[in-house]
Structure formats: C-alpha cells, structure tokens
Amino acid sequence: MSPDPRTDSSLTMAAAPAAACRPPVEERTELPEVRLRGMAAAATMAAAARELVLRAGASDMEEEEGPLGGPGLQEPLQLGELDITSDEFILDEVDVHIQANLEDELVKEALKTGVDLRHYSKQVELELQQIEQKSIRDYIQESENIASLHNQITACDAVLERMEQMLGAFQSDLSSISSEIRTLQEQSGAMNIRLRNRQAVRGKLGELVDGLVVPSALVTAILEAPVTEPRFLEQLQELDAKAAAVREQEARGTAACADVRGVLDRLRIKAVTKIREFILQKIYSFRKPMTNYQIPQTALLKYRFFYQFLLGNERATAKEIRDEYVETLSKIYLSYYRSYLGRLMKVQYEEVAEKDDLMGVEDTAKKDILELRGPHAGSGDCDLTVFLDSDSPRFFSKPSLRSRNTIFTLGTRGSVISPTELEAPILVPHTAQRGEQRYPFEALFRSQHYALLDNSCREYLFICEFFVVSGSAAQDLFHAVMGRTLSMTLKHLESYLTDCYDAIAVFLCIHIVLRFRNIAAKRDVPALDRSLSSGP
Questions:
Q1: Contact, 388 vs 412, CB < 8 A?
Q2: Is the pLDDT of residue 412 over 60?
Q3: Sequence-ordered list of residues with C-beta below 8 angstroms from that of 257, at least 6 positions apart, any chain
Q4: For 315, how many CA atoms within 13 A lie in the half-sphere containing its CB?
Q5: How far are the Cα atoms of 201, 258, 449, 512 from residue 535, in angstroms, in the given order?
Q6: Contact indicator for 324, 277 with CB cutoff of 8 Å
Q7: Which among 47, 243, 372, 399 is most buried, taking Cβ atoms within 10 Å?
Q8: What whole-number distance in Å separates Cα of residue 22 and Cα of residue 35?
Q9: All structural domains of the chain with their residue ranges
Q10: Distances from the Cα of 430 to the Cαs of 11, 96, 424, 427, in angstroms?
Q11: Is the predicted pLDDT of residue 523 greater than 60, yes or no?
Q12: From CA 474, how far away is CA 528, in angstroms rounded?
C-alpha cells in the first residue's frame, strides 16, 4: 500500500524540533486565551493524526485477512459512494478537521515556526491532566459541602414530593368542592325563585286580606263616634276603600267577598244615615233669619269627603242633598238680593236726569197756548184770564230746567271705575240712610254687581270643591243655585234702563261690567260670562 502524501506531510511537521512549538514566556503571560486556543488546536490535530494512523492500520489488516479473519472467504460489499468505511471518506473527514484547525491564527503561527505537533500535543495533554487533578483535589476538598448539598437537594426533593402529593389532594378536594358549589348554586337559585314566588303570593294575599278584613276600630267608629270627630272621617275613608276593594274582587269572582259583604253593607247604611242627617242639618241652618250662611258653608268644606262617600255608595242620598242645597241657597240668594236692591235704590239721588232734561226737547208751552185758544181762534175774543189762571194745568206745563250743564258733566263720577273704588266694600243702605248720604246710579250699580260677583265666585268655587264637579256640570249646578237671582237682577236693570235718561251713568255701568268680567276671569270663574255679557 502506497503511503498517503497527506500523512507524510503531517509526519514531516511532527519531526520539527519540540522547542520551537513553545511560544515565548512573555506571550503566554500576555495572551492566555491564545495559548489555550493553540493547545486545543494542537490536541485536535494530534488526535486526528492518531485516528488516521489507527484507521490506516486497521484497513491494511482487513485487506490481508478479509472481513471474517481469513483471506478470500467473502468479498466485501460494494457500496460505492455510500461506503463510510473507506479511506477516502476517513481522509476527507480528517482533512475537513485539519483545514478548520489550520485556519486558526495560533496554528498558523506554530506551522510557520516549525513546532513539533506531537510534543506540543503531549505537553497539552500533560497540562490538561494537571488541570484535571487540580479539579479533582478541589472536588475532594469540597466533598463535604457537596455531600451536604446533595442531602439538602434530597430533602428538598422529598419536601417537594410531599407538596406535590398535598397539592394533588388539594386539587382533588377543590374539584369536589367545585362540584358541591355548583350544586349549592343550583339549589340557591331554585330557593330564590321559590322565595320570590312566595313573596309575590304573600303580597297579593296580604293586599286581598287587608282589603277584605273589617277591623273592630272601624266598626266602633262608624257606629258610635260623632261625624264631627276626626276618627270618624278616617274610618269612613277606610270603609270607602274596603267597599271599593270588595266590589273589585266581586267582579273578579272572589268567593271570600261574601263573608264581609253583609258587615260592610250594614256599616255603609249606618254611615250614610249619619252623614245625611249632619249635612241636611247644616243646610237647614242657612234658613235661619239673620244668619251669615257663609260661615256654615265654609265649615262644610271640611267634610267634603262625606258627599264623595255618598256619591260613591248612595247616589240617591247624594242627589237629595244636592237638590236640598240648591233649593235652599237659591231662595236665600234671591231673598237677599231682592231686599238689598230695594234698600239700595232708596239712597239714590232724588234729582236724576229725565226726558225733559235732554237737549233738543220739544218746547210744549206754545203748543198748550194754541190748544187753549183753539175754539176762539177765529172770533178774536179770547179770554186772557184763561192764560193767567194759575190753576190751569196746561199753562206753562213744561217744568223749569234744572241746570242742564251739570247733567252732562262727568265731574268725579268717573272715579267709580278706578281700581281702588271698583273693588271697594259694598254700600250698606241703612248706614247711608242714617247719614243721609246719596249716590248716583253707577255707584249703586257697582255695589250691587260687586256683591253679586263676590258671592257668585265664592259659590262657584264651593260647588266645584264640595260637589266634585267641573266644566259644564259645575256651570249647570251654579246656574241652578244663582239662576233666579241673576234673572231678577237682570229684570231690575232692564226696568230701570227703560226710563233712564242718564247717559253718563249708562256709560259708566258698561265699563263696570267689562272690568268685573276681567276680575271673574282672573278668579277662574267662567260661570258669570253669560250673565255679565247680558248687562247694559
């Protein structure tokens, strides 16, 4: 077998003197990393060389003996390029390592100086052995610490193992607890639904029972307490609520209503009887002479719920009370205003404008003379004694005019429509008569209509509040009470205006009516619009 030229070159390099492979001491001191790299490269090259020699020897032996130890027993397999045991493959692999190591700077420097790689590799191996022995000594010195560390690691491992077991048990417990929590949540949800359903049923049943049960305090108050006591009013409101609740439940077909219907009916009849007697007694008190009906009328407003109770439970009694009130108040207002108008007209000025006081009136003196001369007009023997006779009714029949300029002078009469005078207190006729005071017609008209306006507004508001009406129903009830009085006032005004020749008084009365309409609108009383619109 011919020697490999690459092997010869490596042997040639190994034949270099050993002293040349050692770098100077200063370089080893200054460049320890470079030295280590060189040692590693030399060791690699030496190992590669030994491997090459060993494989070459083994290859020669296989060629001589054959694969089974005997020559020519069996031919080797021809694998071609796949044969990894061939010399070419081994040499290629070694060549790759050699080329990689030759690129190292330290190896290049050693090759340039001719260092013997075998001696250099031995030196490197010796140093590595020294380092290994030193490491072994260090390990022996730290053996106790290492043993202690080993024991600690073993103990930690045991602790961790126990913790793992505990955590595993805890995890299994948590899984069981989680399932229990889900079960409890489901049970809690079901119980919550049942609780809400029971509370809803309890609320409905509570309302039903509270609406149907008749307490003893209600029975005692309705049967024994006077109607003027506050507790009677409170229990009456509760009785009204229970009666309404029973009617509602009866419409729904609740059988329990039959148990309390009899008791509620008896209490209702008793309450209606007591309320009817009380209200009628109040209304009859209006009829007493010299009674200020406004005081008991205002007192009735405190018991307006009585009429509401009658309206909801006994409409026939409510209608009876309303009709009695209308009849009584209608007569009272008519009597009051008829008397007031009669006494009020007695304090009017005696000297008022008449037909003959108007401008442009026909002079009747000449006409009377001609009428007296009628039979003697053609004879010429007229008796002048007839004209001089003071007893003759036709002589100077036209009365003397009384200062016509004052009749058509406004003067201070316009103050009657001033804001302060318009809503001033009404005139009191007997006081004016005692003081011998006289007033023009517009002042009497203002006093009369202001009294009518004030009482009408109060009556309308009372009707709306006590009888629980509004709109057209309130106006109809108001006219049922005040209709006769308003008609009487209008007839009196028409009769006066028929023979009235005081134009200034009529003009001022028109303005008074317009201002009273505005006052009624501010007080929110529309019932007087029709009456005031038919004024002068």
A1: no
A2: yes
A3: 212, 246, 249, 250
A4: 1
A5: 66, 60, 10, 10
A6: no
A7: 243
A8: 10
A9: 5-68+82-141, 147-198, 216-313, 333-353+407-533, 360-376+384-397
A10: 167, 152, 18, 9
A11: yes
A12: 12
Residue type, 370: L
pLDDT band at 66 (very low <50, low <70, confident <90, very high): very low
The model's pLDDT over 120-160, given as tens digits with 9 standing for 90+, comes to 778 888 989 999 999 888 888 888 888 999 999 999 999 99
pLDDT tens, 208-262? 777 788 888 999 999 999 999 999 999 999 999 888 888 888 888 878 888 888 8
CB-count exposure of residue 304 (10 Å: 0-12, 13-18, 19+): middle
- CA gap 301, 322 in Å, rounded: 14
* Residues in CB range of 321: below 8 A, 6 or more apart: 276, 279, 280, 283, 307, 310
Residue 439 β-bridge partners:
348
Residue 48 has pLDDT above 90, yes or no: no
Residues 6+ apart with CB under 8 A from 37: 104, 106
Distance separating alpha carbons of residues 480 and 472, to the nearest angstrom:
12
Average per-residue pLDDT for the chain: 75
Of residues 502, 510, 499, the one with CA closest to residue 409: 502
Contact call for residues 358 and 402 (beta carbons, < 8 A): no
> Which pLDDT score, from 0 to 100, does residue 503 have?
80
Report d(CA 231, CA 234) in Å as an integer. 5
d(CA 239, CA 264): 8
Judge whether residue 306 has pLDDT over 70.
Answer: yes
With a threshold of 0.85, does the pTM exceed it? no
Closest alpha carbon to 6 in 94, 74, 69, 76:
94
**How far is residue 49 from each of residues 94, 112, 117, 254, measured CA to CA in Å?**
8, 19, 10, 117
Taking CA atoms, 526 is separated from 16, 137, 379, 470, in Å, by: 142, 126, 74, 11
CB 481 within 8 A of CB 322: no
CA distance linking residue 160 with residue 10, whole number of Å = 58
Banded pLDDT at 351 (limits 50, 70, 90) = low
